[in-house]
Amino acid sequence: MNKRPAQSTTLTRGRISPDRARRSLDLLSILVFCGFFFLVGAQLVGLVGADEPRYAQVAREMLQRQDWVTPVLYGKPWLEKPPLYYWSAIIAYKGAGGVSDWAARMPSAILCSLMLLFIYRWSHRFRPGMQLDAALITAAAAMTIGFGRSASTDMPLTVMFTVAMLCWYGWHASQDRSWLLGFYFFSGLGTLAKGPVAVLLAALIIVVFAWLRRDGRLILRTLWPAGILLYLAVTLPWFVAVQRANPEFFRTFFLQQNLARYTTDLYRHHQPFWYYLPVALLALVPWTVFVIVAVVDAVRDWRFSVKEPPGKEDLRTFLTLWLLLPILLFSVSQSKLPGYILPAIPAGTILLADFIQRRKEASVKPNDWLALLHATLSAVLLVAALIVPFKLLKLALPRNVLIVAGALLVTAVLALWLSLHNYGYRILRFTTLIAVVIAFSLLLRGTGPIVDVLYSERRVNAAIGQIVQGPAPVAVYDVPRSVEYGLAFYRNQPILSYERNEIPLTDHVVIAAAGTKAELEYRLPGRHVTRVGGFSWQRLDFYIVTGGNSGAPQQ
Fold it and tell me: In 10 A of CB 282, how many CB atoms?
């Protein structure tokens, strides 16, 4: 009778098994890429746009008030979004030792990294062989990198939605109800990230998937009472608490911020129906060409999945629906912003990883024309990273830059095409990641500082600080919303608006569009308007308004 070995299956005479060593190396690779894409250069660019500084400021005020229930902006309830991002930012502020713009972006970076690790583990369980491709291709998609470095609610929603949908398919494939519990738990967190859209998207995908499989019972099996109770246990405490503290919450959040936002152009984000087609294509760069091929391949073969038990073809159908249905749903919406379709992007990248794995198993090489298109797109990404700084500054491209760009384009196209031609799909991830890393490095070094100067109010606030000492009243006139919200975060004070008739009767500072002194004097009869500086990069002038009643309240 043979004796059982004294060593475990993963250790042989003190040596780590090749499989375990490979998994450790894979996980290390994922962490390195996450650190590079989401954390390196996090301080190069201040908060940009209106949403980033606004969300960061809400988290700051909740922290200052020690109120984990009601989101607050400038001392007033701000009920547009649920609290998951704010809670995460509060924790980040505490962990970073204080409020900062880079700490405000940590929730997205950390949550996105955890999502990629989950994708790896899930893929290893249900589609072994594609796990590293699935994680790194998702990490290197343009929209993942962009929103993984942002202070927003879009990435927390995407992370929770992605994990929830993968858990649902895990249950569908294995019939292990622990996966179904995971689906309900992370659907609850997705609801706390951005509202009922998490559940609506999941329901749409699952219902259409069940319909394609002609399996109505799949929907009934999904509606598991224990899972529904878990979902309610995750979501209801905050919704009940915030409604009790703010009776206007239901109207503001559900009717205005969700229903009216979708059905009307209340918030002036109208775009044409086809808007998300180019957005999705750009979001998947540099993988766009092969994602399209993977989608076409999955749609062509989806009929076979109806007659088979859960398997590879079934997964492809599920991922294709997950990619396409959110894009279609939001295309119908009257309000469109790029981040709305972010939850669909991981489906496309995981579908591509599955496509690559099947091609590698069949020892099939990509069509030369497809390889050339992919090589060209990746090369264009490199060239774009080189010339974007000149375009942002509206400068003509120097002759030597044009020569370098042309040489880089030709060299990159040839190198990428030859590698795919000779080695096929097994080299696709490696060669493309090289192009992405180089392009992102160029963007960090060349474009990052320019974006900080042109689009963040961090530098504007520093310029104001050289003129005005202390928390003087600050108002804005004829400037983008991003200026108002950005200054409010960096100065940690409400910024008044002349357009809203918030004109202080006391002496104050006005940040206005360049050349508007005459308009200000017209609006302020009897008061002195003195230009004291400006920020030419954003075409802003700084004025001090004097001659008001120091004891009078603000209008």
Answer: 14
pLDDT of 1 > 50? The answer is no
Return the pLDDT at 304.
56
CA distance 339 to 158: 10
What is the rounded CA–CA span in Å between residue 356 and residue 188? 33
What pairs with residue 76 in β-bridges?
Answer: 73
**H runs (alpha helix) in 223-272:** 225-245, 249, 261-263
Task: Output the six-digit token pair for 498.
Answer: 């002349």
What is the C-alpha to C-alpha distance for residues 63 and 389, in angstroms, rounded to an integer? Answer: 37
- For residues 149, 153, 155 and 156, what is the CA-based torsion angle, rounded to 10 degrees? 120
Query: Using H for helix, E for strand and C for coil, what is the string for 95-163?
Result: HHCCCCHHHHHHHHHHHHHHHHHHHHHHHHHHCCCCHHHHHHHHHCCHHHHHHHCCCCCHHHHHHHHHH
Count Cβ atoms below 10 Å from residue 274 Cβ, excluding itself. 9
- What pLDDT is attached to residue 309? 57
Does the global pTM surpass 0.85? yes
CA 194, CA 83: separation in Å to the nearest integer?
8
The answer to whether the CB of 351 falls within 8 A of the CB of 324 is no
In sequence order, which residues have a C-beta less than 8 Å from that of residue 399 and are 6 or more positions away?
none
φ and ψ at 401, to 5 degrees? -70, -40
Question: Measured between alpha carbons, how far is 339 from 304 in angstroms, rounded to an integer?
Answer: 34
Residues 6+ apart with CB under 8 A from 196: 254, 258
Q: What are phi and psi of 513, to 5 degrees?
A: -60, 145
Helical axes 448-455 vs 458-465, angle rounded to 10°: 60
* pLDDT tier for residue 307 given thresholds of 50, 70 and 90: low
The lowest-confidence range among 218-232, 327-341, 475-489 is 327-341
| Per-residue pLDDT at 308 | 56
**How large is the C-alpha radius of gyration of the chain?**
26
Average pLDDT of span 307-330: 84
Inter-CA distances, 177 with 59, 170, 172, 235, 377, Å: 36, 9, 9, 20, 43
Closest C-alpha among 512, 395, 388, 384 to residue 451: 388
CB proximity list for 549: less than 8 A, separation 6 or greater: 505, 506
Per-residue pLDDT band for 334 (boundaries 50, 70, 90) equals confident
CB 231 within 8 A of CB 185: yes
Q: List residues bridging with 497 in a β-sheet.
A: 476
- Least confident among 16-20, 411-415, 520-524: 16-20
Distance CA 286, CA 437 (A): 11
| Average pLDDT of the segment spanning 7-15 | 50
Residue of 495, 376, 487, 369 lying closest to 432 (CA atoms): 376
**Domain range list for the chain:** 16-361, 368-454, 458-546
Residues 253-265 pLDDT 10s: 888 877 777 766 6
Residue count of the chain, please give it: 555
